[in-house]
């Protein structure tokens, strides 16, 4: 299953990219509209990208009235990402979304590095959301915690159906000429290829700790990357920063993943999930013409 990372694709601007996915994850929606952070909001780095958008979005009313109906016209299953300042706000958002048939799953953004962290533990937020919806709930967690496995288990016990791993991590880019931060808000969320080892470790840890379905993301640019996330324990893979540079990435990564699976004698992506946790050897990949 191939998705986009929340905030890395505007499906209404690039519908041809969205329809190549198995599900589309919306930008994070908050209770009230947010204008986002002042520019500069994006800075390229040697091995990735920093962003500090600040959760710009129309708020839940605008999302339900305008954005969601237009997204539904694309015919792609919709996962709604939500964010708030406290457990009660997450619960309110989930209650509103629970009434809309267009939304097949809800991702709880518990880890955005560009805004203040929500008050309360992840378990409290998940429990509040769980009380308001029967939709599948995926908790999106940060790798920047002392024991991610403990946080993941707490989210599971509170009612999470799955995990999204990982969000960006905080980073800083300095202008070579002025020696000042390149982003308007100074600190931003770092993503791209250099995030991959961190994300893989998070997926590996949380798969072992919970056994929950995991959407793995962070530095996925090739089918080989996707296969490694599956092996670490992901049941699905999301594309993020690569979508800014390669609109054909969903189709290309899917094709490359299929080639890698065939080369290794693996019958399906599902059969690859968790292979890194098994002791038995796996046939090495061979070049595919």
| Unreliable residue stretches | 284-289
- Helix/strand-derived category reads alpha/beta
Q: Give a count of the beta strands, DSSP E runs of length 2 or more.
A: 12
Task: Give the CATH topology of the domain at 2-195 and 209-216.
Answer: TIM Barrel
- Strand order of the biggest β-sheet: 1-12-11-8-7-6-5-2
Number of helices: 10
Radius of gyration: 18 Å
Task: Kindly estimate the percentage of residues that lie in beta strands according to DSSP.
Answer: 15-25%
Main sheet overview: 8 strands, parallel
Write down the overall mean pLDDT.
Answer: 94
CATH architecture annotation of the domain at 2-195 and 209-216: Alpha-Beta Barrel
Which series of helices and strands comes N to C? EHEEEHEHEHEHEEEHEHEHHH
Q: Given the C-alpha coordinates, what overall shape results?
A: globular
Helix residue percentage? 25-40%
Walk me through what this model shows.
The chain is an alpha/beta fold and 289 residues long. The chain has a domain at 2-195 and 209-216: TIM Barrel, CATH 3.20.20. Helix content is 34%, strand content 17%. It contains 10 helices and 12 strands. It has helices at residues 15-18, 59-72, 87-98, 122-130, 148-158, 196-210, 223-232, 242-245, 249-263, 269-272, and strands at residues 2-4, 24-25, 42-45, 48-51, 78-82, 103-109, 137-141, 162-165, 169-172, 187-191, 214-216, 236-239. It has an 8-stranded parallel sheet. Strand 6, helix 4 and strand 7 form a beta-alpha-beta unit. Helix 3 (87-98) packs parallel to helix 4 (122-130), helix 5 (148-158) crosses helix 6 and helix 7 (223-232) crosses helix 9. The radius of gyration is 18 Å and the shape is globular. It starts with a strand and ends in a 17-residue tail after the last helix.
């Amino acid at each position: 299953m191939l998705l986009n990372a929340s905030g890395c694709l505007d499906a209404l601007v690039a519908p041809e990219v969205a329809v190549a996915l198995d599900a589309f994850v919306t930008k994070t929606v908050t209770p009230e509209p947010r204008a986002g952070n002042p520019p500069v909001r994006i800075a390229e780095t040697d091995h990735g990208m920093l962003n500090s958008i600040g959760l710009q979005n129309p708020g839940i009313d605008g999302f339900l009235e305008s954005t969601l109906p237009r997204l539904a016209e694309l015919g792609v299953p919709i996962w709604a990402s939500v964010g708030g300042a406290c457990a009660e706000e997450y619960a309110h958002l989930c209650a509103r979304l629970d009434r809309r048939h267009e939304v097949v799953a809800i991702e709880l953004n518990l880890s955005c590095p560009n805004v203040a962290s929500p008050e309360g533990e992840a378990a409290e937020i998940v429990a509040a959301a769980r009380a308001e919806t029967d939709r599948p709930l995926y908790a999106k967690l940060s790798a920047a915690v002392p024991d991610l496995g403990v946080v993941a288990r707490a989210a599971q016990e509170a009612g999470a159906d799955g995990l999204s791993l990982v969000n960006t991590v905080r980073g800083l880019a300095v202008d070579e000429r002025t020696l000042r931060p390149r982003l308007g808000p100074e600190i931003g969320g770092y993503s791209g290829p250099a995030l991959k080892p961190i994300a893989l470790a998070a997926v590996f840890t949380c798969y072992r700790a919970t056994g929950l379905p995991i959407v793995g993301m962070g530095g996925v640019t090739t089918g080989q990357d996707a296969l490694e996330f599956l092996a670490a324990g992901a049941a699905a893979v999301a594309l993020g920063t690569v979508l800014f540079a390669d609109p054909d990435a969903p189709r290309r990564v899917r094709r490359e993943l299929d080639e890698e699976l065939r080369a290794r004698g693996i019958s399906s992506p599902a059969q690859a999930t968790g292979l890194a946790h098994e002791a038995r050897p796996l046939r090495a990949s061979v070049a595919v013409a």
